Amino acid sequence: MRSLGGLGQFSALSLRGSSAQQVSVFLDGVPIGGSGGVVNLGDLPLDSLGRVTIHRGLVPVAYGGAAIGGALDLGSDLRCDPAHRRHGAVLGLGSFGAREARASTSLPLAPRRRGPCLDLRIGHAGATGDFSFHNLGETLQDPRDDHYARRQNNHYDRLLAQLAVHGRAGAWRYSVQELLLNKQQGIPGLATGQQARATSLATLVARSVARLRRELGDDGGRTGHIGLVAGFAVERTRYRDPLGEVGLGVDEQRTRSLDLYISPRLTLDLWRGATLLAMADARQEWSRVDQRLLPAPQGDSSRQRVDLGLGLQLDQHLAGDRLHLQPIVRLDVLRSRFAVPTGSGEQNDQGADHLELGASPRLAARLGLVHGLSLRLAGGRYFRPPSLLELFGDRGYIVGNEGLRPERGSSLDGGFILDLARARTSLYAHAAGFVTWSDRLIQWQQAGPSLRPVNVARARVAGLETSAALRLLGGDIRLSANYTLLAPVNLGDDPSQRGQPLPGRPRHELFAQSSFGHVFKARRTDLEPRLVYSFDYAARTFLDPSGRYEVPSRALHGLAIELHLARRVHL
């Protein structure tokens, strides 16, 4: 997990040394992404989840063209028990004006066992974010003007509501949920220079997600299911920089976007140990930019893109499930309508209408070696179009590039999984090596006061990713850690950049956490105190593709005390 700027700021997931955009994020199987592809995990109702599924490297066919990092699917908690009602509340206060309040309820809408159930959650969070930091005074090499300053204009307020209804109707299982996000935040500007005072970003998102599923069976003994996954999202953002504090000048941009997704799916049991998934999906994205730049407004435009995908996936289990083979074939057809009339769009507008075909065949295998130990191998092609934010975004500190083309590449991935449990002890560990060769890799890099994405002609990202989690004495002692070794290399034709590491990707990253506690009985009530220590380290990296502007390494230590009462109240 990477968080940029503290509470309320952008948070995202990195897998296999990827950027945030290179990890596909789904909510109940529906691709999500605010502002056209960028997912801020800090703005999602993570406390309502029933499962989190992570696919590293190779991903199943339903998750698109296999983004370079992998895929993350956030599954809602859709348990429905007419005899059980659940209610909860969260209240919190913290440093730098942090505050949080949430309430939730889950209850059946009918007394029948298969009647519908309702889940409702609503919450508010905010912070002033006025922490102190080491200000370099715009002179990275001259320490004479260094001083400590307090962060300004770093506040945020966020309202998040979620309503879900799920249950059965005859032979069909269904779930429908609505998400509403309203967020107001300040943009503090660059930490090394004059801080912004009036720059702001307002975001309003309404998202709908629906799923249908029906089990199948026939007289021949074959079984399976059919289903439909669909989603619809409307988003409106307003970025204001009335004093020209963050970007290149006074700026105000209003963006409206629509995102429609639908995917029918059919799963059939073909023969013993073999299951076939056939699916199709269609995604329509539309974005309207109203650029109000003083003194001469420019940049107004409407853009749209349609992505049609077809895929087949065979899951073959052999040798008593010791061997699992998973061949995948997927084809994406991407139709982009980015051209705008003369005088519209940005200066030197590069938006154009074009058609892209992306084939991403892949093959994965898992072999059980001994009890609890398995070997996993995967390889294939991947295809990832740039997000609308990468193409047309403008937040002052980030500026899109209308000339971006989709990433393509090949990847290999292999490693071991250890999963053991005995009595009150469990151990999970994995170690995997990976390498990806990319054509036109989309890489964010410094461009004056802003970040801008560019296509790197050729790049290779290789590395080793490991993790381990150990639970002792029934959970009294919990130890976990993950480490990533990364060797990203620019293989482009520019002699000043060829052989240099890719910006923003540290060679070493380590996170470790230990938790100690025990459940005591106090007058028939469970009382569990816990002590938690965490350590987070990232090696040095660079801001530019030539390896000249270095970001030094950093280590973060965290210490926390928790108290859990009757397994219901958590402090």
Give a nutshell description of this structure.
With 571 residues, this protein is mainly β. The protein contains two helices and 33 strands.
What does this structure look like?
The protein is an all-beta fold. Helices cover 2% and strands 61% of the residues. It contains 2 helices and 33 strands. The strands form 5 sheets. The chain has a 23-stranded antiparallel sheet that branches. The longest helix has 5 residues, at 388-392. The protein is globular and about 70 Å long. The mean pLDDT is 85.
* Gross geometry: globular
The structure class reads: mainly beta
Distance N to C terminus: 23 Å
Could you tell me the mean pLDDT?
85
- β-strand percent reads over 45%
Count helical runs. Answer: 2
Radius of gyration: 25 Å
Topology readout:
Elements: E1 2-4, E2 10-12, E3 23-27, E4 30-31, H1 34-37, E5 49-56, E6 70-76, E7 86-93, E8 99-108, E9 117-127, E10 132-135, E11 147-150, E12 156-169, E13 172-186, E14 200-217, E15 223-241, E16 251-271, E17 274-291, E18 301-318, E19 323-337, E20 354-359, E21 362-370, E22 373-384, H2 388-392, E23 407-422, E24 425-447, E25 450-472, E26 477-490, E27 508-517, E28 520-522, E29 525-538, E30 541-542, E31 550-551, E32 554-565, E33 569-570
Parallel strand pairs: 3-6
Antiparallel strand pairs: 1-2, 3-4, 5-6, 7-8, 8-9, 9-12, 10-11, 12-13, 13-14, 14-15, 15-16, 16-17, 17-18, 18-19, 19-20, 19-21, 21-22, 22-23, 23-24, 24-25, 25-26, 26-27, 27-29, 28-29, 29-32, 30-31, 32-33
